[in-house]
Amino acid sequence: MIVNKQDKIKKSELLSVPLFSGITENELNQLLYCCRSYEAEYKKGDFIILDDDKVTYVGIVLSGSVNMLKNDIYGNQTLLTYIGPGELFGENFAIQKEQNANVSFVAGQTTHVLFMAAFNLIHSCSRNCTFHQTLVQNFFDLLGKKSVRLMEKIEITSKTTIRDKILAYLSMLSQEQKSRYVTLPITKSELAEYLSVNRSAMMRELTNMRNDGLIDFDKNTFRILI
Fold first, then answer.
1. CA-to-CA distance for 141 and 120, rounded, in angstroms?
2. C-alpha span between 176 and 149 (Å, rounded)
3. Fewer Cβ atoms within 10 A, N terminus or C terminus of the chain?
4. What is the C-alpha separation between 19 and 30, in angstroms, rounded?
5. Do the Cβ atoms of 214 and 167 come closer than 8 Å?
6. Span 203-219, average pLDDT
7. How much is the pTM?
8. Rounded CA separation 172/203 (Å)
C-alpha cells in the first residue's frame, strides 16, 4: 500500500541526497516542482514497480531499502541488487524509449521514496533553470556508480564456491564501510538470494567459516578475521 507523504520530509534533509549535491534549498524547491515530484511510503514486501510496468518516474530512496527482483519462467526468484538511502531505482527503464520494466522493485522494509518525472529530470525545462546541469551531472554520476555495483555483483556471483562468494561479498562491504566490522544491509535470506545460493547451505558455510577462524558474526554484524 502506498501512503502519500507530501511535505513530510524537510527540504534541508533532501539536500543530503547525492542527486541534489551542489543545489541550494531555494533551487531545490523549484526543481521538485519542475520534475513533478511526489513522495510515497511503502511497507515491507510492497511492490513499487512490477515486471512489465511502464516506468516514467525515477525513484530516490530517502529511507529504508528497495530490492530489485527478477523471476524466471520456472518461478525462480533472484535478488539482482538492493538500493539503499540516497540511491536511485527505475532510472534505467525510465530513460529508455520503451519504458517497460523487466524486473520488479519491492520494499525491503518500511521505505520512503521520492519520485521525479524522468523526462523532466534529464531535459531542461522552458525556464532554463541554472541548476539543471548540476542535477543532470549528479544523475549520470549515480548511474555510473550503480553500474559499478552491478559489476561487483557479477564478480561475486561468478565465484565457484559458496565460501568464495561470501568472502567476496564481505570484502565489498568492508571496502564500502571502511572497516573489518561490517553490517549486512539485507537479511540473510536476501543475502542467499543475492549470492544465488541455497540459504541452508549458506548458513552451514558461515558456521564452517567461523569455526575455521575466517569470520565471526552475531546476527547481521560480521567481523572479518583474515
1. 18
2. 11
3. N
4. 15
5. yes
6. 96
7. 0.85
8. 19
